[in-house]
Structure formats: structure tokens, C-alpha cells
What does this fold into?
Amino acid sequence: MNRNVRMVRFRRKMIVLCAAMPLLQTTACAFEDLSAAFLGSLASSTFNLLVGSINSTIVTLLPESDIIQIIFGGNRSPFF
It folds into this structure.
């Protein structure tokens, strides 16, 4: 009985260790890779925010905004 309990506990520990193996890998998860991915994502989101704000400003503030909205697809019913 005691041997079976030890085996069950050992198996549980091994299951937890095997499940945590992807998190414990040090060779494929370097700090430089994480920082490069974070900075790339930050640059992409900043660029998208800038382009989106310029687009919305152009579409709403210019006098010929109806034509620009037709070109950009903002005006859903341009001919009615």
C-alpha cells in the first residue's frame, strides 16, 4: 500500500513537471526575443494609431469629406 501511494505521488509530480516544461525552457525564450517582440508590437500599434487618427481627421474635417468618405469606404450610401 505504501509503495502504491509513493508511486501515485511520484507520477503526479512528474505530470506537473512535464506540463511545466514549455514554461521552463531557457534556450528558446531569451530576453532579447521577448523585448524585440514587445517593441515590434508597440511600434506597430503606435503606427496604426497614428494612421487611424490621420485618416479620421482627414475624413471628418476637410470640406470635400463626402468624396473622401466614398474613397475610404466610410460613407455607406454615397448616391442616396
Notes: The mean pLDDT is 76. The chain has three helices and no strands. Helices lie at 2-24, 31-61, 65-72.
